[in-house]
Amino acid sequence: MEEQKKQYDLEEHYAQLEKTITAANLPVELGRVRAAFELADRSHAGQKRKDGTPYVSHCIAAAIITAEMGLDEDAIIAALLHDCIEDTSLTHEDIARNFGTAVADIVEGVTKLTRVQYTSVEEQQVENLRKMLLAMAKDIRVILIKMADRLHNMRTMAYQSEVKQRIKSLETMEVYAPIAHRLGMQKMKWELEDLSLQYLDPSGYKAITNYLNERMDTLETFMADIKGKLQSRLDAEGIQCTISSRIKHVYSIYRKMYAQKLDINGIFDLCAFRVIVDDISDCYAVLGIVHDMFKPMPGRIKDYISTPKPNNYRSVHTTVIGSEGIPFEVQIRTWEMHVTAEYGVAAHWKYKSGTNGVKPGDEEKFAWVRRLLETQQESDASDFLSNLKIDMFADEVFVFSPKGDVINLPAGATPIDFAYSIHSAIGNSMVGAKVNGRIVNFDHVLQNGDIVDIRTSKNAPGPSRDWLALAKSGSARTKIKQWLKKERREENVMNGREMFERELRANNIAPSDIMADDILPLILKRLAFQHIDDLYAAIGYGGVTATRTVNRIKDELQRHQSDGQKTAYDKITEQAERRNKRQRHAVHGVLVEGLDNCLIKFSRCCTPVPGDDIIGFITRGAGVSIHRKDCENYRNSPAENKGRWIAVGWADRITDEYTTTLVLVSTQRSALVMDVATVLNSLNAKVRTLTARDVENNRSTATITVEVHSLSELRLIINRLSAIHGVYRVARVGSAEAKADYDKNQLAQ
Ligand code: MN
Hints:
By secondary structure, the protein is of the alpha+beta class. Helix content is 50%, strand content 16%. The protein contains 35 helices and 22 strands. Strands 1, 2, 3, 4, 5 and 6 form a six-stranded mixed beta sheet that branches. Strand 16 (614-618) and strand 17 form a beta hairpin. It is elongated. The termini are far apart. The structure holds manganese (II) ion. Manganese (II) ion (MN) is lined by residues 58, 82-83, 149.
């Protein structure tokens, strides 16, 4: 081994790459390739492979494999540089400056794939991981270079630790070999499988190779004999053909032993023959001749020419029994089918690099690739191949859980979708999310390969209605709706009522009008609800829409004649018009008895909101100040002010928001402000100010000023805040119990 290390000749290895390129007749500018090699060599200087060779030897080897596949110049250059972004100081910009953006993009793509960690072996997970790699690659050359990289690493796996050998082999067997299969690259698949098996089941692998080696002479004699017979018969029939024979690859024998529970002596068809002809009609002619010469085994004829495999593999297979009673397989195909079978997707560069470039009709021939891969709509046909883009999973995105599970979500999915896909309990208790270690908003759009970590809390407020718009998957939305329906009746009723009344007003119907005893039961019956709150709740959680509901109510009103010629709808519309006139005199949503357009202000001592019982106080020169009837200032008003209190009321139609202040008392807790903010945020409350102070007796108080539309909205906020861990009470300013707390808080400031 020592001697071999010293003997490694970098220039000789590089010359091999040039030779491969020349032999494959690739239209490649060798100067650029040389420059890429030198850059890789400089960048990886000092780094060594486990086998003792300079690191760049791996880069050359990967480039040779891509050249053997027949990939283009940019791909070969990218293969030489494929580890530069990950393992050296070179950046995307450096590579772009020297070799163009296309090369830099490919290298970056390979780097991203390299960073994907393989951990799981569960079948569903593995399939998702394969899809993730393909989806991430975007450019097909990225995945092909990654395959070349993996193939060389597997070839040199002997120098790695036993643990690494097993992990890498398992990953190769589970992820990369199936991708090679999917892309139709049979040769790559076989080699990857055999290399992996060698480390995954060393004794099983050895048993098969030993068996084959022991019988090598017999097998070779047998193959030469059959091949000779085939050749002379086909020559006699005047069919132009090339015949090759091989022993089947180790893993296919191994799999057969397991599948059929056979000992190796029970596996007969160890040998396979391949007859390659010029056209399809010859394929079937050869099949007939083979069956005339040897007895076919029933059920073993497979016509993948008339019915190609999904990866576009085409050939006719048959298994026949030779003169000594030994079965063997014959595969018959054309040259074109052969190249496609060996190199799969990569075969298309082979065609392209032929002397004539892309021929007319090639596009049609590669229709299957197009189905597999999306092409950019380039007018220039020669760009067709180099612009192959993978679009197999454009409507899906694949992300990791922190444990390494691969989760498959619809494109555009957010952390909300992710959380619900794990478990509805995770979604319902979600309070935050991290993507790749960084905190993100709930509307953050996930990308392939992201690692998503959901933070949950026992005190989580639960999903909010907004989440419905942020979730992309139907299942997440269903789970959110279920939760909202079950857990948020109170809130649903309130929100539903607001949406419903807004919609009514938009249709010029006053909410109070349909509440009449002669109308409401009809409407509820028609809409199939027991109680008006059930209707509100249904609108609130999204079970029915307000628009649809109101449209049906309009129909109902118009159908029921009442009040002579006028329908109920006409009547209601008229009432609404009359009221609109009156409404104009309301100021800030408040009507003052006997006074139009007077100056209105809301007292800061009790901050009333619509729904509160209110009373007005005629101030000196500052209009009418509005108080709650339970305000201390009203209840303890001195006798001389009696005459200045005046009746006021809320208008029917209120759209304004009203500022009101709450005082909260809790045990002393550092996270109090955060919990309060979380609750308010989940309710979409508009917070004007939020201050918290520690006061005596290990208590904290918080003063919260919010804007609300109505008392019911405010009550909901109070209920939620009261439910926070450690909170003793939440009170509105103006009430006796809040006064002391409020004063303390003010003093502390
Ligand atoms: Mn590599």
